[in-house]
Design a protein that fits this description.
The structure is a homodimer.
Chain A: H1 12-24, E1 30-37, E2 47-48, H2 52-60, H3 66-71, H4 78-85, E3 92-96, E4 101-102, E5 109-114, H5 115-118, H6 122-146, E6 151-153, H7 161-173, E7 178-179, H8 182-187, H9 198-203, H10 207-218, E8 223-225, H11 231-242, E9 248-251, H12 256-269, E10 276-279, H13 285-290, E11 298-301, H14 303-306, E12 316-324, E13 330-332, E14 336-337, E15 340-341, E16 347-353, E17 359-366, E18 376-378, E19 380-385, E20 388-389, H15 395-408, E21 425-428
Parallel strand pairs in A: 6-7, 6-11, 8-9, 9-10, 10-11, 17-21
Antiparallel strand pairs in A: 1-5, 1-12, 2-4, 3-5, 3-19, 12-13, 14-15, 16-17, 16-18, 19-20
Chain lengths: ~425, ~425
């Protein structure tokens, strides 16, 4: 596959740091960098890992061809350009499996390689994970609130055109049933879906003509948009045109709670008892929850989903945790300034469950780790071994993992009110 | 240039609406779609147009090749696939020039073409504009708050990896001086810049060794990061290593206001009177404004910028304003439901200034428009004429236009407190 290089999706300073380290003789020092969240977005109870599969793809496409080297000509010196020409990540990466949940301090990604290798991945790894985790975390709250009712991802128009494709993917990991984004449907095994826009109704001389054209072409199983003018009139027209076998109607404005009840009653009166009601219109997890008792059959979610429902970035950081010292052994390191103190040393992580299978704690330790005790499971899986991607998996595996991981969290995890992380992060002593 | 097709960066329903319109005989009706904001994000006083150049590029790459058609095989019928194979936008587009300011109701983009042409552009146009305008609006508030001090865009790691490149571009339009994003530096004429990360200091056996390596490789004009351990110690070390010609120091944590004063005094004491102070650490426009009286020489801005500083999407919509009727004449149309009422008919727009050159109103009218009176200027420029892009311009033109447009707004426009749109939108009667 001839993918465009991802090597310039990174920050200027990573290249100049490489240059300085090459000149100073430290570029070959073995290092461990880790990705983690210092805190969750305000009020959130858990985070969701997403983007891992995309990151592995991006890593394989990270190479400096003539084009990239030409662009860096004014950024770094010739010695650095020569190193970049042969640059290849030969290190190893472990991470929380995609779809897994996390809390502050969870070491979501552990990157081991030379400084020259690992420092260049900072921006790309964070871009992918910060975006995709933010969307997945919002999506997970929405699908939890929706229960058995399907959520459809419809946010492409409210975010960058390529971010939209990644957002559809992250939402699917977190339980969304489908997406409106056609590129996401091409690139990933995600079903695509759609209804009709007000423009389609407005294009026609009247609503009946619009509905008739849609049904003639797409069948009675289609979803008709019934709020361009008067909802009651539109529902009557819809059933008259499509018959009682009409697939669904969509409501996109007004008081959805009241309207859903009115429309359900009307559909039932008209004999369209199996016609579903799909609602859209600036829904977020709170609006979805508020409609739980309404006769709604599905939620189309846009803006809130793709913007992380108030938390558009996951706030993950990529920090050096250890590096080789003069004696060749790894030394734990951490920034130690005013308000950003790190935990030095390479981490391991396990999740501990109680006797009923409900999770009770996130265990994070420094050092080589230990075997899991009963009720504990290891969280870091191998993603890249000596430069080779070994952690690729079908997207549905991540989706199933998320459903399982969320179900194992304590009950308060899926409460929508503002709260604390649902699991304490327990740091174990170095062993 | 062999760009990948952008045709699937769109929503499923646009394709099925096309199918239904083809079958119903309405796909060839001439239509006018418009992009506008119903409202600005809460408290904002103006919006900023950005992304126009990117949208024109994306439009030229909008084509259905065999790959796209294969992906749509299960979405639409064969008759629609045949139409898509030959699909080409042959209509015309007008828009507010890139960098221009806007308020609610401003017709930012006016797309005229057949339904088949114009309906397919909805998602792509909105994705580009909603993202780029959101970033530019935040950036404009930041550069206004920073005054003559440069702002550096450093947010790539907090947003999707391709959105990051677009964000750097939008920030530049709105007055940012440079970006850390190397791909943005390759793709656009934007200077790239960078300092060093804490990891670089931690890589070394001590801070002095790190600073010495950086200065040896990058020269004394480099920017040294001085908050990995103790700021005062680091500043003394920095000047000892680099000499009083040290370019700059960066502060990334703690109370930046207090520290900036302390560091300035110390630098001056050490004779490094020309060494600049660059601050970073979750800055937004309010933090920048709060540092106005501090001895700070530049701002590095990340998260807040790329996430639109609380408004990660501009909330622009793409609505049908007029379409051909049975008699071949354009008829104004608009949705007329519960809480989303549109203004029917194709719009024109002008900005009116008072005698001192300060803008006083946004004039929006329906119909063919009229000649501008003294103190009025037309806002819509031609971007695409009969399918050919005619509105491409150098990025610096957009940047200069923004500086000028913002300067002409009433004084309260750049107040950071929550307020109303700085210009009233005055709808003129149809002429």
């Amino acid at each position: 596959m001839n993918r465009p290089s991802t090597a310039l999706l990174t920050d200027h300073y990573e290249l100049t740091m490489l240059q300085a380290a090459l000149r100073g003789g430290t570029a070959g020092r073995r290092c461990v960098f880790e990705v983690f969240a210092r805190r969750l977005p305000p009020g959130r109870r858990y985070g969701v890992v997403a983007g891992t599969g995309r990151l592995l793809d991006a890593l394989e496409a990270f190479a400096f061809t003539d084009d990239e080297l030409a662009a860096l000509d004014a950024v770094v010196d010739d010695a650095t350009l020569a190193v970049l020409r042969d640059w290849r990540f030969t290190g190893s990466i472990w991470g929380y499996a995609e779809g897994e949940c996390y809390v502050p301090g969870s070491p979501l990604l552990v990157v081991e390689g030379t400084f020259a290798e690992a420092v260049l991945l900072e921006t790309l790894a964070l871009s992918v994970l910060n975006h995709d985790c933010a969307v997945a975390a919002a999506a997970s709250r929405m699908t939890a609130a929706a229960g058995a009712r399907p959520c459809i991802e419809m946010g492409s128009r409210r975010t960058h055109e390529q971010a939209a494709v990644a957002a559809a993917r992250a939402a699917y990991v977190a339980g969304f049933a489908s997406t409106s984004n056609l590129e996401a449907g091409r690139r990933y095994p995600i079903p695509t879906a759609g209804t009709a826009a007000h423009a389609f109704t407005l294009l026609h001389d009247d609503e009946e003509a619009a509905f008739a054209a849609q049904v003639a072409s797409l069948g009675a199983g289609t979803t008709l948009l019934v709020d361009t003018y008067d909802v009651e009139v539109a529902v009557r027209t819809a059933v008259r045109v499509a018959g009682p076998g009409l697939g669904a109607v969509r409501l996109d404005s007004g008081d959805l709670l009241v309207q859903a009840h009115q429309v359900r009653r009307l559909l039932d009166e008209l004999g369209a008892t199996a016609t579903r009601i799909l609602v859209t219109s600036d829904l977020d997890e709170h609006a979805i929850a508020a409609l739980a008792a309404a006769p709604v059959d599905g939620y189309g979610v846009g803006t809130s989903l793709v913007t992380g429902s108030g938390a558009p970035t996951a706030g993950l950081v990529y920090k050096m945790a250890a590096r080789e010292g003069a004696d060749g052994r790894l030394v734990g390191v951490a920034k130690n300034s005013a308000d950003k103190v790190g935990v030095a040393g390479r981490k391991w992580a396990m999740r501990r469950s109680g006797p009923d299978g409900t999770d009770v704690a996130e265990l994070v330790g420094v050092g080589p780790g230990r075997a899991p005790a009963p009720g504990e499971r290891e969280l870091l899986v191998e993603l890249v071994r000596a430069g080779e991607v070994v952690g690729r998996e079908p997207l549905d595996d991540a989706r199933e993992r998320h459903a399982k991981a969320r179900a194992a969290l304590p009950d308060q995890a899926t409460q929508l009110s503002r709260g604390e992380p649902c699991l304490p992060t327990v740091y174990e002593e170095h062993r």
